[in-house]
TrEMBL record, chain A:
The chain crosses the membrane at residues 9-37, 49-69, 116-138, 150-177. It comes from Levilactobacillus brevis ATCC 14869 = DSM 20054. Keywords: Membrane, Transmembrane, Transmembrane helix. Pfam families: ABC_cobalt. This is Uncharacterized protein. InterPro entries: ABC_thiamin-permease_prd. It comes from the Bacteria.
UniProtKB/TrEMBL annotation, chain B:
It is a multi-pass membrane protein. Keywords: Membrane, Transmembrane, Transmembrane helix. CDD domains: EcfT. It comes from Levilactobacillus brevis. The chain crosses the membrane at residues 7-40, 46-63, 75-93, 198-216. InterPro entries: ABC/ECF_trnsptr_transmembrane. It comes from the Bacteria. One of its GO terms (cellular component) is plasma membrane. It holds the Pfam family CbiQ. This is ABC transporter permease. Its main location: membrane. The keyword Chloroplast does not apply. It is found in: Membrane.
Length: 187, 217
């Protein structure tokens, strides 16, 4: 297993900042979507639809850097970037960032940081969904929703996280492997 | 206040009120953090922004919980005030703390290894360059008639290549300027960690515990 060196630390931070900058553009979309869904009482759906985008830094960092803690650190630093860029959620961003990163980390840890392929990514998206959903059950009062609505929220979140954290991350990794900047082994 | 202590205080409180349901404590916390922000001369425009956005999201969430769930007005009040506490506490922290001071404090006071503190700082100083790079990548693609969306792998691919390139160069630059991982360092600027900081942390946490567990609604 690799250890953290200066280059990896800078890389994970730069990656997190890049993701933060890209997703910064998405904030107005989130607000508009939430505003459109709010009158029907469906505002949390906006959150669920876009959640995959926010949690993407975790799987991506974990997949590229491949050091224990990379997914957590990548996602957490993304949250720090968001906070200092002027994101309004402040302290709760940091907590959510750490929790989202941990969720992704469990997936990579379960395979001992040895296998980096579809299976690991899919597992990582599942653990991310479960961990972040459990957090929202407490924090955002999701626990008081009716069961049907709760299931809808969960499924939408899983799909979103699977698309961005799984499919998109894998497509990006494929490009990187073809460009020979990531090792081809470990399917 | 020492940046590390301030960060711990904000995170501990935000974490704790995520589990507890006492709206009066939430209300007290949001008033205190609002006063702290006013005391720190946070601009009126920023305060307005920090109020308008959570007002919308908190109302929308409460409305949604009311329509789609079975809940009590008390719980809705807790959720509503909780969102404001997150935003105001976080606003107080990020508006009164410099990233440089935080990194230095984490290294000196919290004993974070220097390679992390300086690695983070080196990367954070690239922020404007990173923002420009994203714009450049998008513009370059547009010139060839490609629109890069948030779901385009090519966008991330190019971004990651740039990140790898820059991290190699930055790490090499730091090493060539004499930075050695794990070597003992002296500090040009020391961040003080006073007894007062510990007292403030302890007393604030104690007050919050008293409020949370003395039976307030």
């Amino acid at each position: 297993m690799k250890n953290w060196h200066l280059r990896d630390i800078i890389l994970v931070t730069i990656l997190a900042i890049f993701m933060g900058v890209i997703f910064w553009a998405l904030n107005p979309v989130y607000t508009l979507l939430a505003a459109a869904l709010a009158p029907l009482g469906l505002q949390p759906l906006a959150n669920e639809i876009l959640l995959g985008v926010w949690v993407m830094a975790g799987p991506l960092a974990g997949f590229i850097i491949r050091i224990p803690g990379a997914a957590t650190l990548g996602e957490f630093l993304g949250a720090v970037v968001e906070m200092f860029l002027g994101g309004i959620w402040g302290a709760s961003t940091l907590i959510s960032g750490a929790i989202q990163g941990l969720g992704a980390e469990i997936g990579f840890a379960a395979t001992g940081y040895k296998r980096f392929g579809w299976g690991t990514l899919a597992l990582s998206t599942l653990t991310t969904t479960i961990v972040t959903f459990a957090w929202d059950l407490l924090r955002s009062g999701y626990a008081t929703y009716h069961l049907n609505f709760l299931l809808l929220l969960f499924v939408v979140r899983l799909l979103s996280v699977f698309f961005f954290g799984g499919v998109l991350t894998k497509l990006i990794a494929n490009l990187l492997i073809r460009a020979h900047v990531l090792p081809t082994t470990n399917r | 206040m020492n940046p590390t202590i301030k960060l711990s205080l904000v995170i501990l409180i935000a974490f704790e009120i995520s589990f507890t349901q006492v709206w009066m404590v939430n209300l007290a916390l949001l008033i205190v953090s609002l006063l702290l922000m006013i005391y720190a001369h946070v601009s009126f425009k920023r305060l307005l922004w920090l109020t308008a956005v959570p007002l919308f999201f908190a109302s929308a969430l409460v409305w949604s919980l009311k329509l789609q769930g079975s809940t009590t007005p008390h719980f809705l009040g807790v959720i509503f005030t909780r969102i404001f506490v997150y935003v105001y506490l976080g606003g107080w922290f990020s508006q009164t703390t410099q990233p440089l001071a935080l990194a230095r404090s984490l290294e000196q006071n919290a004993k974070l290894p220097a390679k992390f503190a300086y690695g983070f700082l080196a990367a954070f100083n690239l922020m404007p360059k990173i923002q420009a790079e994203v714009a450049t990548i998008k513009a370059a693609a547009l010139m060839r008639g490609q629109v890069l969306h948030i779901w385009s792998p090519q966008l991330y691919f190019k971004v990651i290549l740039a990140a790898m390139n820059w991290s190699d160069q930055l790490a090499a630059a730091m090493t060539s300027h004499g930075f050695v991982e794990g070597a003992p360092r002296t500090y040009a600027t020391t961040i003080p960690l006073r007894h007062r900081d510990w007292w403030l942390l302890g007393l604030s946490l104690l007050l919050v515990q008293l409020g949370l567990f003395c039976g307030l609604p």
